[in-house]
Amino acid sequence: MDVNFAFLCDAAELGPHGKISALGIGIQSFFISDLNQPGPPFCFVCHLSGSVTELGTKKVSLHLIDADGKAVVPPIEGQLNVEGPPVGLRWGTGMIMRYTGVKYPRYGGYSISMVVDGHELVSIPFNVVPPPAKPGPAGRPAWPQQEN
To answer: How far is 86 from 89, CA to CA, in rounded Å?
Structure first.
């Protein structure tokens, strides 16, 4: 089984013939000023494919964990039923999971891992950080300056 692509984004939908449409692709960080409040909603998106030797029912779970491997939310578990494609072709399927109301216990690194039949297929890291400082003069970001 192959992961053709996987990413985090703001919103996604699965359209006709398995076509995935997504907005805000490539989330790397969530800027959260108050950790007592939930972070913004987001989607985990991936596309899997495989050969006819991988047909059948697969156990799938998604794990949102912190840098220490502790679950931030309970794992999302389900099944993937892989049916045979036309002769000579590989099967493919898109998956989208929307996360809302997630509260992060602290700033730092997190990841979402997808496990199929007990094997981790993909893990997508992201950060939860405080918002950057307010813009400086002339609209320039007030990021800390590096000294040369």
So the answer is: 6
Closest C-alpha to 40, from 27, 53, 50: 27
List all residues 6 or more positions away from 54 whose beta carbon is below 8 Å from its beta carbon: 1, 82, 91
Return the domain boundaries, the chain: 2-132
Global pTM reads 0.84
For 19-59, the pLDDT digits (tens) are 999 999 989 999 999 999 999 999 999 999 988 888 889 99
Instruction: Output the six-digit token pair for 62.
Output: 């998604």
The pLDDT tens digits of the residues spanning 88-117 come to 788 888 999 999 999 999 999 999 999 999
Place of tokens 């108050």: 34
Tell me which CATH code domain 2-132 carries. 2.60.40.2550
Q: 122 with 6: CB under 8 angstroms?
A: yes
